[in-house]
Write a structure and sequence with these properties.
By secondary structure, the protein is α/β, with parallel strands linked by helices. Helix content is 26%, strand content 14%. Helix 6 runs parallel beside helix 7 and helix 13 packs parallel to helix 16. It starts with 23 loop residues before the first strand and ends with a strand.
């Protein structure tokens, strides 16, 4: 264990109802954060042990990825019981203790809601299988007869996000194939049928269950997917449903409006509670321009800005991306969020060290997202580790200086890189199997956090083989190694987050661009703040009358070198 610093944050201020407009939210992936009982898997007690790290880091809130009972076919996004905790992670009492301790430290708590699908082990899905065709139990999901002479073909041409068809045929007690069920993700994740009132009622109840336990809000998994065209038509002209084209029968449909508003009404019931109304952040991998209408005062509060995550590391693309993101959010009165990575994406320090760092952005938005196979090709390209880390430092200062809220994925505050050499037999992401071993998937960013020590498990737990192997090269990158080194990645994050707390120019608000070289982003925020990020080959001199607050490189250089950023008091 590292030393347990004294918390610096104040307890939750009840009157601060707009906290979410500026919040920096830290994502915990419970399986990989901290292992209290030494079984090699992270747990809620481990999360409690390490809460002081987050208070010291200076974030405002925590988002906990799914901690529910689950066969973990998709890392917990396959929920078998929405009102309990996975026994490997702990108990409901542990969750209560976590929420209470986080609040004592001034940290809000968001948890994951997975409303599009559940686990095939969920009792309602098991009941639907047992009840057979034509029963009300089956109506809660999308069961359909197959096409073909004997129903041997899937009901339509939709593809699953992890590869293969989005339909699985049920095998009856007589061993013969009967109906098919829809699963947009893994075969073990049947989609709920949100046209059924019982499904909507059940989720209202789940929201209240957790709000009553004190959580501050939910991150909504695939918030753009619950509504489907009831006719389940083929996607037009052989285009893949994975592209989420406008007018899709399964993505981003107008019927979502009713679902989102219904959730908002439940959250607003808590407006008079001591911690105020509860909030939602929508996860929908769509351009900001398409999801901005999700975040109005009647619908959800914020949405992940995936444009920030997908955008390549060039001044031109970043400027267009930032401009457009701010513009579409301003138009609906919502704050923007800035997201560099999460448990689904190649870690930022690795991504920015590749020859291809993302997609290009123009005034109209981003070019098309990479396909999983293209991502696999980029993954195979060499990584310049030092370059990636340098850019990740600059990107952190850029992200935290922009108007709105920001997200920090666990380990990004340490500058961890992607573990892209995991032994194939250790891979757990369903993508690996479903793609016929062509796409490695997302395990490389889910490796447990190194806290201390010089060998695996690096203080992740008291012993026990970590559920994914931890690379020997992380020696020297643990929290304990970094916390007293003023030049470390962790020190940069701590300094930036502390400045963000004390500087009234940062967080929610607006920015003004300063005319600059095409390879430089330069903007001010009122009162008295300026941020310069240099993407070009030539160093940018720091104005003589400005005082350096934080520099991603050498604060005494008087310059901003290539791939560096600086915060200035002006
Ligand atoms: C998005 C989550 O972030 C991802 O991990 C999960 O596999 C899918 N939604 C399906 O729930």
């Amino acid at each position: 264990m590292t030393s347990q610093p004294t918390p610096t944050a104040d307890p939750i201020p009840a009157e601060d109802t707009n906290w979410w407009r500026s919040a920096v939210v830290y994502q915990i992936y419970p399986r990989s954060f901290a292992d209290h009982n030494g079984d090699g898997t992270g747990d809620v007690r481990g999360m409690i042990d390490r809460l002081p790290h987050l208070a010291e880091l200076g974030v405002d809130a925590i988002w906990v990825s799914p901690w529910y009972p689950s066969p973990l076919a998709d890392g917990g996004y396959d929920v078998a019981d929405y009102r309990d905790i996975h026994p490997d992670f702990g108990t409901l009492e542990d969750a209560d203790a976590f929420i209470a301790r986080a609040h004592e430290l001034g940290l809000r708590v968001l948890i994951d809601l997975v409303p599009n699908h559940c686990s095939d082990e969920h009792p309602w899905f098991q009941a639907a299988l047992a009840a057979g065709p034509g029963t009300p139990e089956r109506e809660l999901f999308w069961f359909r007869d197959g096409r073909g002479v004997d129903g041997e073909l899937p009901p339509n041409d939709w593809q699953a996000m992890f590869g293969g068809p989005a339909w699985e045929r049920v095998i009856g007690p007589d061993g013969r194939g009967e109906q098919w069920y829809l699963h947009l993700f893994d075969v073990r994740q049947p989609d709920w049928n949100w046209a059924q009132p019982a499904v909507a009622d059940e989720f209202d109840d789940i929201l209240r269950f957790w709000f009553d336990r004190g959580i501050d809000g939910f991150r909504i998994d695939v918030a753009d997917s619950m509504a489907k065209d009831p006719d389940l038509p083929d996607v037009a002209h052989g285009t893949s449903n994975l592209t989420k084209s406008v007018g899709s029968p399964l993505w981003d449909r107008p019927e979502l409006d009713v679902i989102h508003r219904r959730w908002r009404a439940v959250a607003d019931e808590y407006a008079d509670s001591p911690q105020g109304a509860r909030v939602f952040v929508s996860e929908a991998v769509l351009p900001a321009a398409r999801v901005a209408h999700y975040v109005t005062p009647e619908r959800l509060h914020t949405t992940f800005n995936f444009d920030a995550l997908l955008c390549e590391w060039t001044a031109q693309s970043q400027r267009h991306m930032i401009q457009l993101s701010l513009q579409v959010h301003d138009a609906v009165g919502a704050p923007c969020t800035w997201v560099l990575s999460n448990h689904d994406r190649v870690r930022v320090a690795t991504r920015y060290g590749k020859p291809i760092t993302g997609v290009a952005y123009g005034p109209e938005g981003g070019s098309r997202e990479f396909t999983p196979l293209e991502e696999e090709e980029i993954r195979a390209m060499p990584t310049d580790v030092a370059l990636g880390l340098k850019r990740a430092r600059a990107a952190a200062l850029l992200e935290l200086a922009l108007p709105g809220g920001a997200y920090v994925y666990q380990g990004d505050e340490l500058g961890l890189d992607e573990v892209d050499d995991l032994p194939e037999e250790s891979l757990q992401d369903p993508t690996w199997e479903r793609s016929g071993h062509t796409v490695h998937g997302r395990d490389g960013c889910r490796v447990p956090i190194p806290w201390s020590g010089t060998t695996s498990p690096f203080g992740f737990g008291p012993g026990g083989e970590p559920w994914l192997p931890m690379p020997a090269r992380w020696a020297g990158q643990t929290v304990a190694d970094q916390e007293h080194d003023p030049t470390s990645h962790l020190a940069l994050y701590r300094a930036a987050l502390a400045e963000r707390k004390r500087n009234p120019a940062l967080g929610d608000g607006t920015l003004s661009w300063v005319a600059s070289d095409a390879h430089v982003l330069d903007f001010t925020r009122e009162p008295g703040f300026r941020c310069i990020v240099n993407f070009g080959p030539d160093a940018v001199p720091i104005p003589a009358d400005a005082r350096v607050l934080i520099h991603s490189g050498d604060p005494n250089s008087g310059r901003v070198e290539t791939d560096e950023a600086v915060w200035l008091a002006i």
